[in-house]
Design brief:
- The complex is a heterodimer.
- By secondary structure, chain A is an all-alpha fold.
- Chain A has one domain: MetI-like fold, CATH 1.10.3720.
- In chain A, helix 1 crosses helix 12 and helix 4 crosses helix 11.
- Chain B folds into three domains: 41 residues; 100 residues, no CATH class; 221 residues, Orthogonal Bundle (MetI-like fold).
- In chain B, helix 12 packs across helix 14 and helix 14 packs across helix 16.
- Chain B is flat.
- Chains A and B meet through helix 1, helix 4, helix 5, helix 6 and helix 7 of A and helix 1, helix 10, helix 11, helix 12 and helix 14 of B.
Chain lengths: 283, 417
Amino acid sequence: MAIPSYATRGERIWHYVFLGLCALIFLFLVGPLLIIIPLSFNAQPYFTFSQEMLTLDPAGYSLRWYEDFFTSSAWLNAIKNSFIVGIASTFLATILGTVAALGLSSRHMPARSAIMALLISPMIVPLIISAAAMFFFFSKVNLAQTYLGVVLAHTVLGIPFVVITVTATLSSFDTTLIRAAHSLGANPTRTFFKVVLPLVTPGVVSGALFAFITSFDEVVVVLFLAGPEQRTMPIQMWSGIREQISPTILAVATLLVLLSMLLLTTLELLRRRSERLRGISPG
Amino acid sequence: MSESSAIPLTTADGVPLKTSLRRAVRRSRVKAFLLVSPLLLFLVVAFVMPIFDMLWRSVDNPEVSTQLSRTVTALEGWDGESLPGEEVFAALAEDLREGQEARNLGLLSSRLNYEKSGMRSTISRTARRLRTMEPPYKEAMIAANDTWGELDTWQVIQREATPWTLSYYLAAVDRQLSPEGEIVKVPEHLEIHVSLFWRTLWMSLVITALTLLLGYPIAFLLTSLPLRHSNLLMILVLLPFWTSLLVRTTTWIAILQSQGVLNDLLVGLGVIADEARWQMIHNKTGTIVAMTHILLPFMILPLYSVMKTIPPSYMRAARSLGGRPFTCFRRVYFPLTIPGIAAGGILVFILSIGYYITPALVGGQSGRFITNTIAYHMQTSLNWGLAAAIASILLFVVVVCYLAFNRLIGVDKVKLG
């Protein structure tokens, strides 16, 4: 953001004040996420920096909370459950959502905006309401406290993300490409696999990632619907924070921050790939 | 033109063009709908039906009419002026005996206890003593428990015999029915829900305002930087967006608690004394700070997408016409960003009033939201009817905001990341 040449002295001062303010807000946004990374290596069972840590004494640092995490059967079981539920519900949500997005992006879709509003509503309805409603209903049909119940609930929550990302991808899809492929002699199957699929895949994959992270991070519905066997990672963290607060939570949190960085990078790469394929040059 | 239209245009196989076109459109409509239908069916079964089931549960009132069916029948035509006669007591004895044998008096006694406190123990005690009771039941029951000699016990039973009730909604807004059937306020020490509703709305407004205050400059900075730099800064916005909610809440516990990072820093700098550490968590401050942080990206992203569409030349034109910088901002730039403010504001507000996890973990007593009460009635007090009624009221507020959002912005314009 360059300062225009006609700026007065007051404006110049304001410009730097503004940049300073923005830096502070960015610190507020990202600082908390970065602060837990060193804290998770604390040798003491506290949530704050010890004297040894501040003087960079190696004795102040340890990997004991990571060891705690990787040797605890409760945590490992919770990770396993999170992956089972996450992958299963992502799979369901991606298939249902992508097929529906294909229909929704048709010009002739009847009642398009009403249906879209319904499909997105699981994202808007407060989780506690969805959780309570599903608990009441799933108990009646014996789905409460089962893996299937949790998977179905998470599928519902993941669907809006898949629908939004895939319809966005499809809306910018240039249908003349299909005609061009046909005119060059490709049959419909070949066109689908060689032209349509490569262009749509990034959207589908990022929708799936959104659905997965939604399920992986979801507490409220699992809290109501799951039995002791379906304890997922967020539930383990939740009870850890509520009951016996130990820095193992910080170790888990650090791992999750790294995971989200990884996901974010993947998404960014996908976005660039999709832009390159469409011939939009990145800035 | 009108003459030539007498000979209708046809396709190669002789079908009129109009018909053929209509057929093609219908075919693609059906095809599009068939593609959407699996998901639609799934959502109706797994989401819409549960929601309606919950709405129904908030007015459903089966306990008295099914479990005290004989009593209710015997009470028909009772004037409510004096105690009912022996036949009603005998019917009650029969009903309670049957319930005691089937061991399902729990729901009934809790249900009546919501209407008249003390009914739970009255019913369980009477049911236990029934074995040794002899007719006439009227005297025996009143002797066993005074409650049966009170007029309003019977009025409550008669009133709650209807298959559906509004009493959960009344309880959700701190009202109850008096024995005379009028809607009155509950005693002051029991008033909790209305103030919690207001607190939830008020704190959500504060959080929305704070995210706007912090998000506006960031969105502005992101739009005015060259794309290369703004992409990098965008990652800083998206990283918290992608990080687990529990992680973000945990970090605020680590930072704000009284032995936490911020208090240690302030003590170390000598700003506050060691004994006078600030209480910044398990109260309103904790909830507001943590939720502002968590919801900030939801404000920045819509603001950014609107600001990106405002040509920078507008501001230059305003300046060249002699406007002072602040006037130009206020009169030209700011009005153009109002759609973004509306989108971000409604989004943050909707998300905020439905938040449960963060207020539950960092809110303490004074930072609780209405959602925490729903969870309490679901899990601890087991008053599911009341939980459903509070949830329905909250759902109504959210749906109104959602419809406003849809009208103003349109859900199909929602973008992620």
